[in-house]
Amino acid sequence: MLAVLKQKPDKMTLRALKAVSVPILFLITLFLIVVIYIGLYKIVNVMDTKAYFRYASDGKFTQDIYFEEAEEKGAEIYSTLGNVIPDAVIPPRIQEHFKILLQNEKFLKEEMNKNNGYVEYLASNNATVNDVISYMKKIVKLDDIFLYAGIYVGMLIFILTLYFLYKWRIGLFIFSGILYFILVVDSFMAGIFLDSFFLSFQSLNNFLNHLEGNGNGYLVSYDDYLMLSKNVLPATREAALTFIIVDTVVQSMKDSKKRKRSSKFLASYCELEFTLNFLKQMKGNLVITNLKTVDLEAIYYFCKENKEDRHLIEVVTNLDEWKKVTRNQKMTVTELHDRLLSVRNVLKESKFIRENIIR
């Protein structure tokens, strides 16, 4: 029983496990996106809350001069806002508050312009009611901006997990290419391309609801679809592009490591030839305590990396057996020569050796 448990799963089993675990990983990613979204707010709040005001005012102000400071200066802006929506229904978050106010933007502007004290206050700060509206709209967009960043980071983690743990490099490249192609076409068509798929997407959602036996299930709204096409997909595209950059760096490091290992291997092979010629000239009954003229480890690790070459894998097997036999045992010149010769003979059959050394 223990022997069975210790056996490594075959390729088909591994593929099945990966396929089953990906949806679970994606659900974890969705939760992670929410955590990142909340965390980004906390980071900004800890670092510098003035960043919100600089962003919303296009860098003009470092505090809320349009509302808090205006109220302190007696402009009575909150009373004006109370004429637009009653205080009893004001939501706790400023983004939601401004969103409700902006639902009737024209009426909001009219009420602000009626407040002469507020208009004069704005003028003293080189601002207008239009600047206030722009400020409010940017505050409302904060959630979308932070969510976009959260989706990007979350999807990047998801993609890199598939890349490093699942080894789905080619699949991720195909996915990235298709996604990038779709979004580039959509950008050239001013968003019309993806927008044209809304009804199809809604029909697909309804079909899935019927399959689940939930005919009155959630109906995807146009705003939901816009969230997908304008936030989720672009953020995923950026994550995919970041993955390509990461892959470029990783492959560059692997290539550099491979070149170094190949160089060491070729040098060790030449040392092996020299050692064999040297051992031929020595007496066969002499005992060798330590072999320093050839780097067998360089040969071993290079062969181990090139699993597609059966001759190199055979060398790995031979060297593994050699380690077991000679762990606590000294060798004569003849024994050492024979073992090195067997390694050399197998290496000569390798495609790599034939292409790089044997001409």
List the SSEs and their pairings:
Layout: H1 2-6, H2 11-47, H3 50-56, H4 68-72, H5 77-84, H6 94-101, H7 105-114, H8 116-124, H9 129-140, H10 142-164, H11 169-188, H12 192-195, H13 198-211, H14 222-280, E1 287-288, H15 296-305, H16 310-325, E2 331-332, H17 333-348, H18 351-356
List keywords for this structure.
mainly alpha; two-stranded antiparallel sheet; 2 strands; 75% helix; elongated
Describe the fold and architecture.
The chain has 359 residues and is mainly α. Strands 1-2 form a two-stranded antiparallel ribbon. The protein has helices at residues 2-6, 11-47, 50-56, 68-72, 77-84, 94-101, 105-114, 116-124, 129-140, 142-164, 169-188, 192-195, 198-211, 222-280, 296-305, 310-325, 333-348, 351-356; strands at 287-288, 331-332. Among the domains are: 21-167, no CATH class; 254-356. The model is unreliable at 1-5 (pLDDT under 50). The radius of gyration is 34 Å and the shape is elongated. Keywords: Membrane, Transmembrane, Transmembrane helix. The chain crosses the membrane at residues 20-40, 145-166, 172-194.
